[in-house]
Amino acid sequence: MKFTDVISPFLAWSRAVKKVDTIPYPKQQNPGADRYRGFHINDTEKCIGCGRCETICENKAIDMVKVEGVEPTQGDSGLRPKVDYGRCCWCGLCIDVCSTGSLGLTNKYSWTTEDPGSCRYTPGVDKKSWDNEEKGFRQDNDVLGWAGSPREEMEIETPEKRIENFDEVVKGYTVQQAMDEASRCIQCGLCISACPAHMHIPDYLKAIAEGRFVDAVKLFYDNNPLPEMCGKVCTRECETVCAMGYQGESIAIRWLKRFACEQFESLADVLALDAQPGEPNGKKVAVVGAGPSGLSAAYYLSRKGFEVHVYDRLEEGGGVAWYAIPEYRLPAKGISRQMEVFEQAGVIFNYNKDIDSKLLTELEGRFDAVYLAVGLQKPSDARIEGEDIPEVKPAFDFLMKSPEKGEKLTGRKIIVIGGGNVAMDTARTCVRLGADVVLSYRRRIEDMPADDEEIHEAMEETIDFRPKTIPIRIEKTKTGIRYFYHEAVMVDNPEGGRPLPRPRDDVEHTVDADILFSAIGQTSDIEFISEAMQKEMEIKWGRIIVDNHQYTGYKNLFAGGDITPGEGDVITAIADGLRAVQGIINRLK
Amino acid sequence: MGVNSDPATDPKKTTHLFFGPQHPGVTGNMSIEMWFDGDQITKAITHVGYLHRGFEKLMEKRLWIQNFPLVSRICVPEPDINEECYALAIEELAGIEVPERAQWIRTLVLELARFAVNLMAFGGQAGTLGLGTGAMWGITFRDFVLDLFEELSGARIYHIYIQPGGVRRDLPPGFENRVLEVLKKIEERLPELDRLVLNNAVFKMRTKNVGVVKPEWIEEYGLVGPVARGSGSVRDVRKDAPYEIYNKLDFDVVTETGNDIFSRAMVRRREIDLSMSLIRQILDGMPQGPVATKLPNLTEWRVPAGEYYSRVESSRGEYGYYVVSDGSLKPRRVHVRGPSYVHAVPLLERMLVGANIADVSNIMVSLTTCPPEIER
Question: Is 80 exceeded by the pLDDT of residue A545?
């Protein structure tokens, strides 16, 4: 043993006169680090109540609760997270997965209370002393990407190639892509209330993610008998509220529906016993119009045991949604596959039957209930001087006549007036037939009612977009027509709403063309309803006003789809059909 | 009576005593049942079960990502090795690439954690001999490192910072400088701790030739870490099977040949210097770039089926996770293999026979046994 070994430990006494390392708590309290995982805060305005924090919490410390003053709306469940500090371990997973980034942790870590109940609280609603704390652990989605991710890319044909034919523009997902895309769903269910037909979206996305495509198709048919159509042309309200869309891209719900349907040659075989007529209840219902709304009502009525007869003026089912939408968006080959299901479900079709007041009266007498889903059949007047020239044609009629099978328009010049989906479809069809197309629209491109996707794709396809052009008149020339227009400036609407286009000056611009298609909308044709009948129901702007169950107020007559006021899209029409089924069941009980 | 014919536990000749589980000299929550004759131990049995929280079973009931806050709780002083092992296994199973910067940051975190543990363990060795000042100083130094962890990860103890695909956040601005400041501060004061512990007559007398681990036991029991390296072994996963960026760092495996508690303390003391050197090398070579790979939707994440054994070098030696996935949302099986099982059960039971009763916690701490590793 060395002598220094005995002495050296005593040198520790030198510390006695130096600055101490410990802090005199509680007189001095160090603040938490800038990133400290302390108490919760929540921006309740930003929060949409998707409940992902509740799902990810491994301690079950978070409950989604109803909060006073926050009402459920489309895209907001109205629930907010309540944290239980008896269970929380402050791991911060809830912060990193929060789909809107509203949830955060502050750097406050010390809190004393006499009330143990206050340790369960709803951040942002129950006031706490740290509510306005700036520092703390906050989401950084750029680093982790747990709160939102990009969409699985859908392969799209190049504009140069796709204008050469009528093949579908989008090529569809592969199995792996679809399963990956579907597994991005966080199962929050906000989409269900946004979908007019309230489809079981989280359930079928889960089924697709797990490769159970048969289950997915069966789930579609629970409240949508035209899933393939919706998988291609739906307006997809669901995707606008998707929680994944806040910090990433919303899930491609529409494309996944399309994918699942395309996995099978025959949907009727897939559904098998799930699409059979219900046990007959002795009641008969007539459905007028074999469009989405009529088919939807017919299918579910038949499944409930009604004897259903569908009448349509066309040669096949599907309605104008199927006939007028061009091949490159909605190929005709899918129709027979979907129509088989209706036949298997026992729906009886009567095609080539134009409805008139005589037939309607007859149906009313023969059937226990009638569902009118005739849609809008008459093109709106363009109200432009010269619209009666034969070269000025309604775009809708052009689309209805399968233009892809008709004559080529090579080298011809076409003008399309309008900014809706029909205008886009007409313009894009004409481009595919070889024409040069000018598209004239009164307002700005962002005001166009057509789908953004449609506008975007149309702009890629050599179509000459002329927004902010006010039509003046059309004149006949030796070779065709001359279209006159003013350039517009947008002025604020004194009554509110969209800005109005007003001529910028007196200069008249012209375009020469061979044909002009007017695509400024459709109106109803309700002449088939007798005046006596019309008096019994409420009709506004040519549309039949109905109650929550599509009941017109006249005897056992129900109506739905475009003939009633609404969004005018496929899924709303299908939802009308679903409601009518419930209305008819209630009324015939 | 009379049934017991073992002289080591003969109630007429030996005293029967429980050491722990509530005893400040015991590492963690375990106990040793001892029989002794005079103050010489004749037999010792390790008892665990006071800390059983069913980690491995719980993990089978949770989503893959939800286990990160759980695995870190298996080891209080050094949670990061658990996160690292679990993350390595998932990355291997799911085929996830870790960005280069994330690998450097992970190595930094692992070394900082080892640094903090060794500071505490080195001081703690003195603490078991009643030299409380050394223990307190060790804990104080560790606290300086915990300040760094708080700044980096948002928590002092359970960092939950290493994640599959990388780390959870980038380094805060100026973090490198603060790490260097802390290293400098501790480095300046380590000689004081050395004078208090290593150059201490009491420490030397109580640790030299006490708690001998014979070199042949290393293979016999499968000893690892400072316990093996204190008896001449050069076993170190960082060198033998380099993970993250250890193969890019310049270092030699620390080894001592005294076989006793003193040489194990020396291994820890030299590991402190090694960690400081490694941390400086990491900060020098840290590349720029992303710190995490994007993962699939965490609540629907199905890790592809397969099995993998990941291992890292903890402050106690080789530490491994055997992870099995059946391709579902949750792990099928996770087995945690910590070195404490052999160190605290067969080895400790053998070492204690013939030892002095006053040296029990001394020997036990020199093995740095950690009960949660034994009862997962």
Answer: yes
Residues A407 and A503 in one domain: yes
Tell me the two tokens of residue B203.
Answer: 């420490």
Start-to-end Cα distance in chain A: 105
Whether A524 shows a pLDDT value over 50: the answer reads yes
Of A235-239, A386-390, B126-130, B356-360, which range is least confident? A386-390
Between the alpha carbon of residue A252 and those of residues A64, A179, B38, B262, the distances in Å are: 26, 11, 78, 65
CATH label of the domain that carries residue A486 = 3.50.50.60
Q: Indicate whether A232 belongs to any domain.
A: yes
**How many other CB atoms sit within 10 Å of the CB of residue A249?**
16
By DSSP bridging, strand B40-47 and strand B31-37 are: antiparallel
Q: Is residue A350 part of a domain?
A: yes
Listed by number, the residues of chain B in 173-202 with a beta carbon closer than 8 Å to a beta carbon of chain A are 192, 195-196, 199-202
One domain for residues A297 and A430: no
Do A412 and A370 lie in one domain? The reply is no
Partners of residue B158 in chain A, C-beta under 8 Å? 89, 91
> For residues B281 and B338, what is the distance between their CA atoms, to the nearest angstrom?
28
Provide the 8-state DSSP code for A19. Answer: P
Task: Read off the CATH number of the domain in which B119 is found.
Answer: 1.10.645.10
Both tokens assigned to B108: 């930094």
Instruction: Give the residue numbers spanning the domain of A398.
Output: 379-521
Predicted confidence (pLDDT) per residue in A57-104, tens digit = 999 999 999 998 889 999 999 999 999 999 999 999 999 999 999 999
- Selecting from A137, A183, A206 the residue whose C-beta is nearest the C-beta of B296 gives A183
Pairing of strands B15-19, B31-37: antiparallel
Burial class of residue B180 (count of CB atoms within 10 Å of its CB; 0-12, 13-18, 19+): middle
pLDDT at residue A9, rounded to an integer? 84
In the predicted model, residues of chain B with pLDDT beneath 50 are 1-2
Tokens representing A570? 């496929």
What rounded mean pLDDT belongs to chain A? 89
SS (H, E, C) B242-270: CCCCHHHCCCCCCCCCCCCHHHHHHHHHH
**Chain B residues closer than 8 Å to A149 by CB:** 294, 296-297
Neighbours of A433 (CB within 10 A): 19
B291 touches chain A (CB under 8 A): yes
| DSSP-derived 3-state class of residue B169 | coil
Closest-CA distance of chain A to residue B146, Å: 11
Distances from the Cα of A264 to the Cαs of A226, A230, A270, A274, in angstroms?
A: 14, 16, 7, 16
The pair of structure tokens assigned to A123 is: 């951040």
For residue B152, the SS3 value is helix
How many interchain CB pairs under 8 A, A with B? 122
Using the beta-carbon criterion (under 8 Å), do A183 and B300 form an inter-chain contact? yes
Q: What is the pLDDT of residue B3?
A: 54
Phi, psi of B210 (to 5 degrees): -115, 145
B60 touches chain A (CB under 8 A): no
Task: Name the residue among B342, B319, B370 with its Cα closest to residue B89.
Answer: B319
Which residues fall within 8 angstroms of residue A589, CB to CB, at 6 or more apart? Answer: none
Q: What is the DSSP string of B70-100?
A: HHGGG-SS-THHHHHHHHHHHHHHHTPPPPH
Backbone angles phi, psi at B79, to 5 degrees: -70, -25
Residues on chain B touching A55 (C-beta within 8 angstroms): 299
Is the CA virtual torsion B337, B343, B344, B349 positive or negative?
Answer: positive
Number of domains in chain B: 1
What are the structure tokens assigned to B230, written together? 């204190």
Same domain? For A185 and A256 the reply is: yes
CA closest to A94 among chain B residues: B66
Residue B1: its pLDDT value, please? 45
